[in-house]
Amino acid sequence: MALAGPLKVCIVGSGNWGSAVAKIIGHNVKNMKKFASTVNMWVFEENINGRKLTEIINTEHENVKYLPGHKLPENVVALPNLTDAVRDADLLIFVIPHQFIHKVCQEISGKVHKNALGITLIKGIDEGPEGLRLISDIIREKMNIDVSVLMGANIANEVAAEKFCETTIGSKNKNHGLLFKELLQTPNFRITVVEDADTVELCGALKNIVAVAAGFCDGLSCGDNTKAAVIRLGLMEMIAFANVFCKDSVSIATFLESCGVADLITTCYGGRNRKVAEAFVKTGKSIEELEKEMLNGQKLQGPQTSAEVYRILQQKNMVNNFPLFTAVFQICYEGKPVEDVISCLQSHPEHM
Fold first, then answer.
1. Parallel, antiparallel, or unpaired for β 117-120 and 7-12?
2. Is residue 148 annotated as involved in ligand binding?
3. pLDDT tens track for 153-184
């Protein structure tokens, strides 16, 4: 790796999580000679009460739409043009909804220098003709750069409020993982680096499906014992899925990192997927309607990931091996009754 400092950082995305990460990076780079002191952040331009969102961020230093109430450091510069934002960047932090990754990579392919490094904070997967494709694989293929991943029990508003949490960086090149740890770690944002990157990334995507099931249980007022069963059986399906679909060997220890069981717990109790799934049961409205009503422009990942997982499992004739993942998809998209989530627990293969 021939990166010469100070390294220029660009954050590709500026939603709730992207803005929280921008706050960390903006503060950290001020005190480190290794990194350039200005941080570019690509912002999908929106109009907020007659003003451009980039203008608000650059003058008031707050993302009033996606992270209100938290000041961003003044060295974080919002740019509406993606190509301008990534120009000359050495380190790219990808933090956008997973459904936009193809479009973003196509736009900046060939515009980033060959020694640049990426890290994806995107929780989701893609499916192609060969089945599973990880978001990091898409970035790697389209951008021709090395990509690490960061996943963990990180509810963005709590991270922005500097409440203590942990996270996991997965990097097949340990030195690249350690470089991103240096950029991102703070006393209240503690990072472990592991080499089992594909498992780290899969955990971040699959836990959102389990959180939807947890939200269904909350909507049905099932109680904490049932939710604990959803979390445990969901974790078992996550492990089984990783064992089938990961190209490299899977370490069970990775599921004990923040990206695994910790992220699963926090998402099943505090995340947006759980919240919307509970409302789905109580209101009878569609997932799409609730996303528009409840999330202030943010995207829901769990239902869409369940659909992608379902199609991947169909290709392998393995739908019946993953009853919880399947039930979430069928309830969200095929009109199956929400109570099916309970019957899938009752007859789960783990009990047979």
1. unpaired
2. no
3. 999 999 999 999 999 999 999 999 999 999 99
Query: Any binding-site annotation on 272?
Result: yes
The reply to whether 321 sits in an annotated binding site is no
Residue 281, SS3?
helix
At 251, list the tokens. Answer: 């370490």
Q: Which candidate, 67, 91, 123, 95, places its Cα nearest to that of 259?
A: 123
75 annotated to a ligand binding site: no
Say whether 275 is catalytic: no
Name the fold adopted by 201-351.
N-(1-d-carboxylethyl)-l-norvaline Dehydrogenase; domain 2 (1.10.1040)
User: Model's pTM, two decimal places?
Assistant: 0.95
Residues of the chain short of pLDDT 50, as ranges, are: 1
Provide the sign of the torsion angle of the four alpha carbons 141, 104, 32, 65, taken in this order: negative
Residue 97 to residues 15, 60, 126, 352, Cα–Cα distance (Å): 9, 25, 12, 38
Asked if residues 16 and 43 have their Cβ atoms less than 8 Å apart, the reply is: no
Which percentage of the chain shows pLDDT scores above 90? 93
Asked whether residue 315 is marked as a ligand-binding residue, the answer is no
Cα dist. 30→227, 300, 343 in Å? Answer: 43, 34, 54
7-195 fold: Rossmann fold (3.40.50)
Q: Which two tokens stand for residue 297?
A: 């422009």
Find the catalytic residue in 8, 65, 207, 227: 207
